Amino acid sequence: MPILSVQHLTTQLRRAGQWNTVVNDVSFDIDANETVAVVGESGSGKSVTALSIMGLLPERVSKITGRVLLDGEDLLRFDEKRMQSLRGNKIGMIFQEPMTSLNPVLTVGRQIAETLIRHRGLSRRDAKTQTIQLLDRVRIPAASRRYDEFPHQLSGACCSAS
């Protein structure tokens, strides 16, 4: 059974009073330890697909149909509170411009560790240890040193990997 199964995802966005289909009948499965790339031209719906899966589109201007199954549960049926408990814990997204997604006044390690503290209830010390392990796992060179660096000190490739 896939970890994530997207089935017949269709997203419509309202603009100037009209509903426009921007994602039409997208389906795919992602298994454990599988890497998937979503590729397409600018404006083809890659970001809207991801935002739909994450439940990050405002309800007043979006209609999303289909099924998004995470561990067998349909995310499209979850309320906002339940989605918030999943984001950063079981599901996450790296936005197109990771340099602007990271807070420039906080170290990279602290930003990742805060997510672990908030969503997994880890102590600061355990969160730091796990953050360094995660940075190492995604092949950030010198992970323990990078923990204390600020986003501007990392290359774009390092930031998008973290």
From TrEMBL:
Its main location: membrane. Keywords: ATP-binding, Cell membrane, Membrane, Nucleotide-binding, Transport. It holds the Pfam family ABC_tran. One of its GO terms (cellular component) is plasma membrane. It comes from Devosia aurantiaca. It comes from the Bacteria. This is ABC transporter ATP-binding protein. It is a peripheral membrane protein. It is found in: Cell inner membrane. Residues 32-139 form the AAA+ ATPase domain.
